[in-house]
Amino acid sequence: MKVFGKPMRTIWPTADGEAVEIIDQTKLPFDLEIVCLETVDEAAKAILDMLVRGAPLIGATAAYGMALAMKNDSSDASLDYAYKTLFASRPTAVNLRWAIDDLKAILAPLPADARNKAAWDRAAKICDEDVKMCSDIGEHGKELILQAYENVGKTRTINILTHCNAGWLATVDWGTAIAPIYKAHEAGIPVHVWVDETRPRNQGASLTAWELNQHGIPHTVIADNAGGHLMQHGQVDMCIVGTDRTTWTGDVCNKIGTYLKALAAFDNDVPFYVALPSPTIDWTLDEGRDIPIEERDEIELTEVRGKDANGDLHTVRIVSEGSKGGNPAFDVTPRHLISKLITERGVCEASKDGLLALFPEQAQ
Ligand code: MRU
To answer: Catalytic one among 173, 237, 244, 251?
Structure first.
């Protein structure tokens, strides 16, 4: 997507093919800083410290992490170390496991001197595939927005609520939940986005709002607690969110607070859509409650970073000294609260039957 009018991805190999560059998302929305990753340890740290985040981008970064390991040492021991180090970096987004399993399956049978090139080629392909999947999700999701626009006789703007950041910054390009909004905007459908700020890390306020701003898409940042009220008052036509892991039975794990939005949407007959590329589906899990939920440092809750009137950045504490913070980073929305899933192959029910109809090759 575009940054200051120029097309950009969230991750790319350097011109000499020796390293990988990323946008340091911890610096947004105030500064656009590019960081160079040269080792698998740096890639794992970038994931852990959330310089890159969002399930699809975590997967892409992990793939390049495997490639960085192979560049420096293509032995079995190095492959094993890369796999374990990346696997340990963040537990919830299943795209990470998907990507490193994929790379390991390709690299392990190869002689050591063939692994470096194979790893870089596959990581690049994973990125290109992610872009294509997200673009296709956008096309399928656009039809739902168009339907809503037609349902109101094309007389007014369609209001869409989203949670966290599931835009292009969470993927390699296009995004998951925001891709349909970009495509609808491109097609001339008037859209307005309610952006949940998404405490404690504020991915909505810092990232989603920034990228929508870059594209001139009308949006309003709201407190996480405002969505239910807006739904009660007919100001939300649909919710579209992303997901970090979806069971093959249709339970959706996403950023903490998603479940409460789904409850409010259910109570108010507001369609609740979840957009996901297929590497986000966990074909091994039956129940959402079995998804490991990352518990992050309480400092993310007790401290807040922002810019003062002079343009200086500060981090301030907002919780009384001595009070503890609890910080589960994700929650699970059960399938009965979800109207539809939007995948790269089309739209389906949040259920085994729905997903298997689109992905019949997983039936065994
Ligand atoms: O903790 P993060 O920022 O990595 O959170 C992941 C997400 O970006 C969201 O949960 C998102 O809605 C799903 S990933 C497209």
So the answer is: 244
